[in-house]
Amino acid sequence: MKISVIGCGYLGAVHAATLASMGHNVLGIDVDPVKVEQLGQGAAPFHEPGLDELLQDGQAKGRLRFSTDPADAKGAQVHFLCVGTPQDKTSDAADLTFLVSAAEALLPHLAAGAVVVGKSTVPVGTVDMLRGVLAARPDVLLGWNPEFLRQGTAVKDSLVPDRLVYGVDGGRAAAFNPSSGGPLGVTAALDAVYEPLLRAGIPRLVCNFATAELIKSAANAYLATKISFINAVAELCDASGADISELSEAMGLDPRIGSRYLHAGLGFGGGCLPKDIRSFRAQAAGHGVTAVEDWMQLVDSVNLGQRSRTVALAEELCGGSLAGRSITVLGASFKPETDDIRDSPALDVADRLAAAGAHVTVTDPKAVNHAWRRYPRLRFEASILRALEGAELVLLLTEWDEYRDFSPAVAAALVRRPVVLDARNALDAAAWQGEGWTVRGLGTRHGGTQPVSGTSPVSGMRPASATYR
Ligand code: UDX
C-alpha cells in the first residue's frame, strides 16, 4: 500500500520504518529539515536499537522516503498522524496544536476516499475536533489507532505488538454494516496495512473513537499507578524495616498482579507517562470524574516525591549538607537504552543536588551530548572511570547494564568515599558491600535498618585523589 506518516519523531520514524519492512511504500513527512535529512541517510536522530538498520533496509529497497513537503503525500491511501501531543505550557492538558496543523497541511493533498488515521496519544474527544478540521472533505475517512510502543524496544513493540486497536466511526457495530461505507473502509484499510501482524495472530480490537482514545491514556495511567503504588510501599518499607525488592518479587509472582512495572525506585519520567497522566487527570476533571482526577494527582505526586526523597537521602549520606560535596551521578536518560532526557528523573535529581551546592558530575552511555547544554550547573563526563574519580557519594539514577555490571572494586579504587545510593535498586548490594561500599536504596536497607547517617559517613572519607578534577 502507499502510506504517508506525518510526524517523524519517536513514534512516526519507527512506524514508517516498520511499515516499510512489512512491504508497504512509505513516505515520512516532518517539518524539521534536519530530521528529514538524517532519516533520509538511514540514521535515526535518536538512539533506538534496531531502527537504523530498518531505515537503511527500507531505503535500499526503495520502499521508504522522507520529505518536508506535505504535497508529497498525494496519492497515499492511508495517512498516519504521528505528531507530538506535549503537555500544554500553561495547564495539565495535552497541546493539540501540532495535530491540527498536520491535518490542515494534509487536507489539500488527500485523494478521494483516503483514510486518515491518528496514532498520537490524545484526550478523548479529539477525533470529533479533527472531524471539524476535515469537514470540507466528507469523502475522507477517519480512524484512530493508538500506539503502545516503548522507547528502547520500539522496533520490537511495533513488529510484535500485544494488540492492535482500531477506533472507527460508530465502533464495532458500524464496522459490520456493509452499506455504511465509511467505518468498514477504515477497518478494511487498517487490516490491509497490518496484514502480516494479523496473520501472525496479533489480537485486533475494533471500538468507537472515544474508547480508542481512552484505551491509550488508561493503559499509561495504569502503568504509572503500578509504579507509584510500589514506590509508596517502598516508603513504608523504609519506615518499618521491610525490603521492597523482596516484597515486590513476592507480589509479582502472583499472576493476577505480575512483576512488570513493579520495580521500586526513582520513579517514572520520559516524554509519555508524566504528561499522559496529567492529560488524563485534566480529561477526568473536564468530565467531572473526580475519582480519576484525584487518583492521577496522587500517582503524580508520589512519583515526584521519589525525586525529593532521593535528594534528601543523598544529603543524609553526605552528613547533613550537600554544599561542596563531590557527587557522581550514573545515568542521565529517563531510562536505559534511550538517549531521551525529557523529564528525566536522573537529571532532575542531579540538578537539585547541584542547586544545593554539590559539585555534580553526570555520566551516561548515550545521553551526555543531549544533556550538557541544558544543564549548565552540572559537569558531564562520557567516561565512567573519569566520572567516578574523587566522588564522595555515587548515585545510580538510570540503571544501564553498564552500571549494573560495573566492577565495585574498580569503582572503590576511584572514589574518595565508597558510598552508593542505588536509587533504582539495581545493583548487587552484597557484591558492592563485599568491596567495602556502603549501599543504600529506596525501600531497601541492605543489611540492617540502621541509617548510614548514624555512623557519620563523612568521618570515613579518604584523601582526595591527585587526578580528581
Ligand atoms: C511508556 C509506555 O510503556 C508505552 O506503552 C507508551 O506507548 C509510552 O509510554 P516509555 O515512555 O518508553 O513507554 O517508558 P517505559 O518503559 O514504560 O518506562 C517509563 C518510566 O517508568 C521510566 O522512567 C522507567 O524507568 C520507569 N519505570 C518502569 C519504573 O520506575 N519502574 C518500573 O517497574 C517500570
Could you describe the 3D structure shown?
- Helix content is 42%, strand content 12%.
- Residues 173-178 and 447-469 have low confidence and may be disordered.
- Helix 1 packs across helix 3 (51-60), helix 10 packs parallel to helix 13 (290-317) and helix 13 crosses helix 14 (345-355).
- It folds into 3 domains: 2-207, Rossmann fold (3-Layer(aba) Sandwich); 219-305, N-(1-d-carboxylethyl)-l-norvaline Dehydrogenase, domain 2, CATH 1.10.1040.10; 306-441, Rossmann fold (3-Layer(aba) Sandwich).
- The protein has a 6-stranded parallel beta sheet with strand order 3-2-1-4-5-6, with helices on both faces.
- With 469 residues, it is of the alpha/beta class.
- It has helices at 10-21, 33-40, 51-60, 97-106, 126-133, 154-159, 172-175, 182-193, 195-199, 209-240, 244-252, 273-286, 290-317, 345-355, 368-371, 384-388, 401-404, 408-414, 429-434; strands at 2-6, 25-29, 64-67, 78-81, 115-118, 141-144, 164-167, 204-207, 326-330, 359-363, 379-380, 393-396, 419-422, 438-441.
- It has 19 helices and 14 strands.
- The longest helix is centred in the middle third of the chain and has 32 residues, at 209-240.
- The structure holds uridine-5'-diphosphate-xylopyranose.
